[in-house]
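Hi P.,

Sorry for the delay on this. The queue was packed all week, but I finally got your sequence through. Input first:
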Amino acid sequence: MRRGRRAHGKALAAIAAAALASTTLAACGSSDGRATLNWYVNPDGVNTLTKLAAQCSAGKPYKIQIQLLPSSATDQRTQLARRLAARDSSTDLMSLDPVFVAEFANAGWLAPLSGDAAANAVDDDVLTGAAETVKWDNKVVAFPQWANTQVVWYRKSLAQKAGLPSDTNTWTWDDIIKAAADNGGTVGVQGNKYEAYVVWINALIMGAGGNIVENTEAGTDAKVTIDSEAGKDAARIIQELAHSKAAQSDLSVSNEGTSLGQMYPTDDSAKAVASAPASEIRTVNKKKVVLLPGEFMLNWTFVYNQYSGSVGDQGGPPTKADLADLGWARYPRTVADQPSKPPIGGIDIGVGSYTKHKDYAMEAASCVTNSDAEVALAANEGLMPARESAYDSAELKKAYPADLLELFKTSVDQGGPRPKSAFYSKISSAVQSRWHPPNSVNPSKTPAESASFLKDVLEGKALL
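Then the structure:
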């Protein structure tokens, strides 16, 4: 429902007043006379981020103060953009989704790194996929803090029943969709109309050798290439899943969290319990349930922590036996003869251009992104390192299976980023508008229609 102009104006005035008030408060120094560095963070890993802020402030002439951003990447961008467009000097440090780094740098909102800071932020220890996210216009403009990627999480018993190849690196989207559909399972993805859906579309297209756009440094004159054979391959797979038995019922609104429960779904009906073999029966809250086949789920690195930390809760699932049945594999291939391009996400730390404490902020950003900090985020929060050396730490080797650590590291290093463009938000929104909902996607129409609309949006001939 739309608001009237007067109500909308009052809302904007209230937002502006609140922003001004928070800026005024944040600009004050700490009670012990040290400078305050405001670090705007997203809600992932706040406990560990708060500890890092305290550790990196110890004995320093500044104190790092955590300021919480909204949960969605789009809302995070909006809040930070409003502050920086107003030249807010209290935005000292900020956690940025990698896709917004180019936009913020192009707008002059990020202080470029120089000297040792720039060299260390992208040194040889930083995985290639993560290092590329902090570069813009031949400058290093942020510090990689943690790197995210997606893998296939699956039930080993389901894959075995389906007869999938033991070499999981060769699995295709066609393979896992058919395996799930033929054996009572599902395929979990992010199909809601939001950024993660574009992550899926982009990974499918890159996995077939294409791109949504090319020559992104040309800004609004970038070449739109989504209407290609690769774009058609991506659309075909989305169409195939959307119309198969493997599609989850909430596909058009699914997100990172909605499919988690489908890895270990249960049926508590008396008929199911009576007919199931003993190996499939669990007792949950003193009630017998049957463990169903489960899913192949495309999701981020946090999943292992989610399940391993839940073992034993209320009798499961997951139990220890269920966790032993959890498998992981490289992101599926779009086409059989080309390696996949796993999605790359994570968080980069930028220093605001208008901060009054640039040198302090640079030092602080370097501290909260060093190898020890990245190990802490991975071990405590499931947010994986951008630095290769962190994967060799004793803490991570204790917290994760060795082959899973290697899969995460390889996927980040060999993954495919979303378009690095100062106009990425427009690109993403334009793609979402023509590719959603998933069950409307048609390889003979959707890539062409989205290419035409995206060109018009970039050229200012159409509004989102």
